[in-house]
């Protein structure tokens, strides 16, 4: 499987409030509706096009580690695409969290 070499960039200022949804993007793909941080939109669309089943994501808003959470059946493909696992403090034993490549 070919890794995408696109460089995605986080456009958050780091000053957004935790409940500030103004930087969220909503899009539909194959009859599913997704709501994601604006700066992760293209990366999430890419992953969905590769057959990855995402369940949650956060860019980290330049204050902390972002994550992309996937269904268990997508873990192997995420690793094949070069994604690095990360620990989510809310679910420390979960294995389906990965660091976004959006910087």
Q: What is the structure about, briefly put?
A:
The protein is of the alpha+beta class and 103 residues long. Helix content is 15%, strand content 22%.
Descriptive overview:
The protein has about 100 residues and is of the alpha+beta class. It contains two helices and five strands. The protein has helices at about 40-50, 75-80; strands spanning about 25-30, 30-35, 55-60, 65-70, 95-100. The radius of gyration is 13 Å and the shape is globular.
Catalogue the unreliable spans: none
Number of strands: 5
Spatial ordering of strands, largest sheet:
3-4-5
Please describe the biggest sheet, giving its number of strands, its sense, and whether it closes into a barrel: 3 strands, antiparallel
- State the shape: globular
**What is the end-to-end distance?**
22 Å
User: Can you give the mean pLDDT?
Assistant: 82
Helicity range of the residues? 10-25%
What is the CA-based Rg, rounded? 13 Å
Structural class comes to: alpha+beta
Order of helices and strands: EEHEEHE
Count up the helices.
2
Strand content: 15-25%
């Amino acid at each position: 499987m070919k890794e995408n070499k696109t460089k995605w960039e986080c456009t958050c200022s780091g000053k957004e409030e935790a409940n500030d949804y103004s930087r969220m993007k909503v899009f539909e793909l194959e009859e599913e509706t997704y709501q994601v941080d604006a700066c992760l939109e293209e990366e999430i669309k890419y992953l969905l096009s590769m057959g990855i089943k995402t369940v949650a994501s956060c860019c980290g808003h330049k204050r902390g580690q972002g994550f992309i959470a996937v269904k268990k059946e997508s873990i192997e493909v995420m690793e094949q695409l070069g994604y690095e696992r990360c620990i989510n403090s809310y679910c420390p034993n979960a294995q389906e969290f990965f660091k976004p490549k959006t910087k």
